[in-house]
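Reagents: none. Just compute today. DUF4194 domain-containing protein.
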Amino acid sequence: MTNAISLQSLPRLAELFRLFNGGRHLNRLAEPGLWAELEQQQQDYVALFEALGYQLAIDGRGFAWFQNEDISATVSNQSRQLALLFMIIFDTQADAGLALNRFHEWRIDRNLLETAFEQHQELLTAEELDVDTLLTLLDKADTFGFTRRQAGHWQLLPAVCRYLDHFEALAEQERDRHGELEQDMTAETPALPNYHDEENRA
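Predicted 3D structure written out:
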């Protein structure tokens, strides 16, 4: 199949490969030109990368990446820390009444992280994370294409949906678990005697 692909029709192949192979996400919001190139030749890029042994994942919400199940311990730890960072940001913004699906409009700065730290201090302290470390993690997230630095703040990019999807799935599982627990408790609770009826019969 790849023999029929003309490399001349993929002028930004090398640029896209370097981006994806470096562990980055391509975001429509941050790199509209590259995203347009990928969209126009999506089938050819997917087929070519697959022939080279890479799985290109494309999400219609505006981001793409190389799917890699075999990750190193270092990358796994970084992903865990980033997950914690995004979790406290989403939780803090949800408490403030903001819509989670509009996260790209949020201004992520030191003030917000200080608020998030105060609300999740016990958890973050246990993970040996402070506000300065969280700021460093935002720069790391920039490296992977989850955020981009603006003038005095960061913006969350569409690729953060990967974490948001995971958080929402966990929340749904937790709701289901509580629902099953309540049903079990209801089924196991013995019926209490109606003492009022006993008195009437007496």
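The chain is about 55% helix and 10% strand.
Action item: order primers for follow-up constructs.
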